[in-house]
Each structure stands twice: as C-alpha cells, then as structure tokens.
C-alpha cells in the first residue's frame, strides 16, 4: 500500500502567473481608459457644436404659427374678408393625459354637451400624439380667463389667442367669396399643395367655396414659428421671443365687385329667390353678382350644427345654390334679342310685317301670344317693343335653329367664362347637331321638328342659361363692338389681371346690333312692356331693356300661373337692360325665380340696382347733378333796335308780343 504524497509548487512560478495576469488586465484597463479619454476628447473638441444644438433642441422647441390669411377687398378697397383675434381652447393627447376626463372637466367652464364630447374625443384619439385639437373657438373673455387660471391643473389643455376668418358683410358676398373651414383628412392629398399633414394644425383653414377655394394657395401665405422653452416632458415653460420666425401673410385679392351695389341687390330681393349680375359695358368688370336668398358665411367658419345645415340644404329656395352661376333657367322673352339678330343676319327685311291676332296655328296646335287680343300688325321693332310672340313664331320658321344658336353663342350663351371661381354651369343652346347628340340612343327623336322653332324663338324649349350669361349677352349688345368677357378678380397680390375688353370683335353687322338696341330702348319707353318699372328718375339718363317670363311647366292641363299657385310651379321673371341709352356704360341681368313676370318682379329690382350703380359712377353723377340749360327765347324784335321815334307805349307793346 502506497503512502500519502506531498506536492510542492515553485513560489516564483505562482508569482509569474499573477504578474502576467495583472499586466494583461492592466493593459485592458489602460486600453479602455485610453479609448474613453479619446472619445471624451472627440466629443469635447470635435462634436461641441453638434451637442450644443442637440441640447438647445431639447431645451427649446418651435410652436407653429399659421400665417394670417390674405384679405379680400372690393374695387374700392372695402374689406370683404379679413381676420380677427380669436380665443380658442386646445387639447393635446399625451401619455399622462386622459382626454375623456379632461373634456368632462372642461364642460364645467365651456358649453360641451355629451354629443360634442363624443365627437371631440374621437378627433383627439385619432390625432397624432402632442398634436393640438381645437375644442372650442370664439370663447368669451370670461371663458378664456376661467380656463387660463386653471391651466396648471389641466394637463394637456391650452387656452390661447389665434385668428379666425371674418366676413363683415355676411351673406351679401357668400356665394362669390365662399368661406373657409378646418382641414379634415379628406382634404389632405398624397401629392400637391395639400400633401403636408401640417395643415391638420387647428390654426389652419382651407377655402371651401368661391374665391377662398379658387385662390387658396395665394391666400394661405407661409407659416412661421414661435420659439418656446420646454421641460423634460416637452411641455411649454416660457416664450423665448428672440428666435421667433415671423409668418408671411397671404396675398391680397381685389375683386371688381362694388360693396354698395352688391348690398343693394341683396336688399331689393327681399324674400324672393334669384340672381342679379351687373357688368361694365366697357371692360367687362362685374360690379355685382348676387344670389338670393343667401347665407352667413361666418357661421360656416365657426362650424354649423347638423340641424342648421339641414335647414339650409332642404329649404325650397335653396340658399346654398349660386343662382348666378349654377342656376339654369329658360331665358324667356329676353332671348328674343338673339332671335332678332338671327332674323337680321338671315337677310330678312325688318319692316316685314306679321299680323298678331293673339296666337298662331301650327302643326295642329295653337301657340298663344302673351296678349290675348293680339298686337295687330308688327314689324321687328314693334315685336321687340311689345314682346310679340306671334311675330317671332312666324319668323323662326324662316330662320331655323342653327342661325339662332350661332347668334346666341356669339353673345355668350352656352359658355363657361374664366372668372377665377368654379361652379358655372354651361347650360344648353340647342341646334340640330346638339339634338342629334342628345338623343343618340333614340333615333326617332333626333330630327329637329319645325314646331320646335316656335318655342326656341321665344326662349323656351330645350334652352337653358344662367344669369351671368344673360349679363354678358346684354353687355355685348350694349358695347356693340367687342365680345366682352366678364372679369371678377381685378388683381392678386397687386398684380393686375387682364380686362375683359381684350376680346375679339362681334361677328355681326353694327347696324343690326344697333337696330336691336333701339328695340330695347322702345321697351322702356311709353307703350313698352317695361315702361313703368324701368324709369330711373335720374334726369335725362334712361335705361333700355327687355322683359321675359319663362314657364317652368306646361299649362295645357290647367293650373294657376299667378301668385296664388304653388311657388315652385310659378313662372320665372327675367329682365336684362343697359344704361345710359345714349352712351351705354352698365348692363344688368336679373332673374327672379318663380317670380311671375319680368315687368312686375324683375324690372323693378333691376331699376333699383341700376340706380345705385349709376349713382356710384362719378361721371354719371356729375351728369345727373349738372343743371339743365335755360331755354333760349327768340324775341320777334330786339329791344335795342327799336327806332327812336317809337313811343314808350309802342315799345311796351312790342315787348309783350302779339296778343
């Protein structure tokens, strides 16, 4: 059996292992310290500016400042759309906030019913984190103060002052200017100017109609930023004004409209429905484009309730519809001016007469004239003056639809004009080719029947026009030379836009246009269809015009055409005119929807609008105020040539003149 063994190790060997290990670990430590020192040196010496910027960005933040939206003014500089201060309430969603509880707390200070809280909660939850959501606009000072003093205990709530769009004249310009509203997700596109999600900021507004929509990019301007100091959680501590980036306001847009004429037009319509357009016959500027009834655009900026919007959209007189651009109507007898041009251009003698006995038989049907007893023998001048349907019935069979359509289109009917805003409807100016296209799927209806000429000649049938087109037609007639184009936007950002007088010459003989103008002048003279309703009362300044009454349904089966009938089944009343007759300066077109009669409904309103327009013109006003010259008296014998031998009694007798 072997005995126990004892093993001995060399002391130096153990020390050597220890030293080697110590040196190795020391080397690793020295290498780490060297790397750390190098890294610190790199950060301190070479990355100083970068980390200073990062430090500053953690300490300071930039709060978006939407640019003031550009103002819109009329031709004389009166403000039609501007901005005003607005106390608003904002809520942001963060990890430390409970939006539902926050809204319930805010309901103690501002009016927030349960339905509105549910809508706001949905908006807040769908918004990006820390993106403010507008809870209330236009707070009163008391509400603003109540929220502000409780700001420290209301996490995620901010009460500040922004800007809101304001329309000083309410509904007078609502259809032309339109309105702005908050941007929603449907307004954000993947490309183009609306691709930036920054538009969802509660301070941004986007144009929804009219000029506000058409020139939205020009009106937006460029947003700025407000430099603020924030805490570790990103909450604002204080404002650091030195680093603010000032926003650039939007461009100013000047319209050709006149605020006084526009307001007067809306006033004279009262409760009636329709539209009125006034144009300058020299350059095409639109001074008035009123649609009635209207709506207050300021209510759309603040946000309509569902009940309010339904009330506007379901009202039978359709206040949301632009009657000047989107409303289409048969022009009635106002269209006889175009038929008259076609008659003259066809080479028909204007002195050719037609006997009106109250109507005309054609194709087994009796076509009535508006005057039951008839007008008797009529030439073209008389037919325009008296608006004799029978004369135009007869002549339409000789002229045909294509010549009438060519005249109507040359004077602006059936066209869409570049006035800067959307919403125009082209309407219908029919001819043989149009009917063939329209009834492409019904071959039996494609031919143009001779009986259709009769309705077409007096402005009925398939014919559909809008109020702007009627104003252009009248302005071109009054100008007599240029095919004027309407101009609504005068300048954008101070840059003038081309006038409407930059247009081709009318392709008609000047004497033919003058003949029709003389017929329109006779309409407003004694015996004309609009004599009583068209007298301006402005001295020697007179107005020429043409009345029109357009049916909206067939009366063969009976029914009332008067004001006792159902409103939406009554006839439309129309009137077109220009003034002064001797030197045409302004043209007007008025449509009174279901107003019954051009001479009773449309002409009196056109007269009042035209009076305001003329009185606003300095040259016309000077002409009105100029005293008339004293009549010259031609005595039989001049007193200073009486012979010296004449007695005093004889001189007195000569001065008195013959008995």
Topology at a glance:
Elements: H1 11-45, H2 48-59, E1 60-65, E2 72-73, E3 79-91, H3 99-106, H4 114-126, E4 133-136, H5 141-149, E5 157-166, H6 174-177, E6 180-182, E7 205-207, H7 210-214, H8 216-220, E8 224-230, E9 236-239, E10 253-255, H9 259-269, E11 273-280, E12 286-292, H10 297-302, H11 306-314, H12 336-345, E13 354-356, E14 359-362, E15 365-368, E16 376-378, H13 380-386, H14 389-399, H15 401-410, H16 432-438, H17 450-457, H18 467-479, E17 489-492, E18 495-496, H19 510-523, E19 544-550, E20 572-579, E21 586-593, H20 598-616, H21 618-625, H22 648-656
Helix pairs in contact: 3-4, 9-20, 12-14, 12-15, 12-19, 13-19, 14-17
Describe the protein's architecture and organization:
The protein is of the alpha+beta class and 659 residues long. Helix 9 runs antiparallel to helix 20, helix 12 crosses helix 14 (389-399) and helix 13 (380-386) packs across helix 19. It is elongated. The N and C termini lie far apart (190 Å).
Key structural traits:
single chain; seven-stranded mixed sheet; 22 helices
Shape estimate: elongated
Could you give the count of β-strands? 21
Strand % is: 15-25%
Which structural class matches the secondary elements?
A: alpha+beta
Mean pLDDT comes to 85
What is Rg?
A: 40 Å
Biggest pleated-sheet summary: 7 strands, mixed
Portion in helices: 25-40%
Number of helices: 22
Low-confidence stretches: 637-659
Distance between the termini: 190 Å
């Amino acid at each position: 059996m072997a005995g126990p063994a004892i093993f001995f190790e060399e002391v130096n060997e153990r020390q050597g292992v220890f030293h080697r290990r110590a040196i190795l670990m020391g080397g690793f430590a020295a290498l780490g310290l060297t790397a750390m020192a190098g890294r610190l040196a790199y950060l301190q010496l070479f990355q100083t500016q970068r980390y200073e910027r990062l430090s500053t960005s953690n300490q300071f933040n930039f709060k978006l400042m939407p640019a003031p939206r550009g103002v819109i003014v009329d031709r004389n500089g009166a403000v039609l759309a501007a901005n005003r201060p607005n106390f608003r309430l904002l809520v942001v969603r963060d990890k430390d906030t409970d939006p539902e509880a926050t809204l319930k707390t805010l309901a103690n200070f501002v009016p927030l019913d349960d339905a509105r809280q549910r809508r706001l909660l949905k908006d807040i939850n769908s918004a990006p984190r820390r993106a403010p959501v507008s809870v209330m606009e236009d707070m009163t000072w008391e509400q603003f103060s109540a929220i502000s003093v409780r700001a420290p205990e209301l996490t995620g709530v901010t009460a500040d002052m922004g800007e809101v769009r304001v329309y000083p004249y309410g509904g007078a310009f609502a259809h032309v200017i339109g309105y702005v509203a908050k941007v929603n997700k449907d307004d954000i596109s993947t490309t183009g100017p609306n691709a930036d999600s920054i538009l969802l900021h509660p301070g941004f507004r986007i144009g929804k109609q009219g000029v506000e929509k058409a020139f939205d990019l020009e009106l937006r301007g460029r947003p700025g930023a407000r430099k603020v100091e924030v805490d570790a959680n990103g909450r604002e501590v204080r404002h650091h004004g030195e680093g603010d980036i000032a926003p650039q306001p939007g461009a100013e847009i000047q319209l050709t409209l006149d605020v006084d004429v526009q307001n007067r037009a809306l006033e004279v319509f009262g409760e009636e429905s329709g539209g009125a357009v006034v144009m300058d016959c020299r350059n095409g500027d639109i001074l008035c484009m009123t649609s009635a009834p209207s709506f207050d655009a300021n209510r759309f900026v603040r946000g309509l309730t569902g009940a309010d919007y339904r009330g506007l959209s379901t009202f039978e007189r359709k206040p949301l519809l632009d009657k000047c651009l989107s409303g289409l109507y048969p022009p009635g007898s106002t269209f006889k001016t175009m038929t008259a041009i076609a008659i003259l251009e066809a080479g028909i003698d204007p002195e050719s007469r037609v006997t009106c006995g109250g109507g005309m038989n054609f194709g087994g049907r009796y076509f009535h004239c508006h005057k039951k007893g008839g007008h008797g023998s009529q030439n073209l001048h008389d037919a325009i003056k008296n608006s004799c349907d029978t004369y135009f019935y007869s002549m339409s069979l000789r002229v045909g639809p294509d010549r009438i359509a060519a005249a109507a289109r040359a004077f602006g009917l059936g066209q869409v004009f570049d006035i800067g805003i959307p919403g125009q409807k082209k309407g219908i100016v029919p001819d043989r080719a149009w009917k063939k296209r329209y009834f492409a799927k019904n071959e039996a209806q494609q031919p143009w029947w001779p009986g259709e000429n009769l309705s077409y000649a007096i402005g009925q049938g398939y014919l559909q026009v809008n109020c702007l087109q009627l104003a252009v037609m009248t302005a071109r007639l009054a100008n007599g030379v240029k095919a004027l184009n309407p101009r609504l936007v005068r300048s954008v950002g101070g840059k003038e836009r081309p006038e409407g007088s930059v247009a081709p010459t009318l392709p008609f003989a000047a004497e033919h246009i003058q003949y029709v103008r003389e017929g329109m002048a006779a309409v407003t003279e004694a015996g004309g269809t609009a004599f009583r309703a068209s007298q301006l009362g402005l001295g020697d300044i007179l107005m020429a015009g043409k009345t029109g009454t357009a049916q909206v349904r067939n009366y063969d089966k009976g029914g009332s055409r008067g004001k006792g009938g159902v409103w939406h089944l009554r006839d439309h009343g129309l009137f077109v005119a220009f003034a002064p007759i001797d030197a045409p300066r302004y043209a007007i077109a008025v449509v009174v929807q279901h107003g019954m009669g051009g001479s009773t409904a449309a002409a009196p309103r056109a007269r009042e609008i035209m009076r305001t327009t003329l009185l606003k013109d300095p040259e016309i006003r000077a002409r009105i105020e100029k005293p008339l010259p004293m009549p010259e008296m031609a005595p039989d014998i001049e007193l200073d040539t009486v012979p010296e031998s004449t007695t005093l009694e004889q001189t007195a007798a000569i001065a008195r003149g013959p008995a």
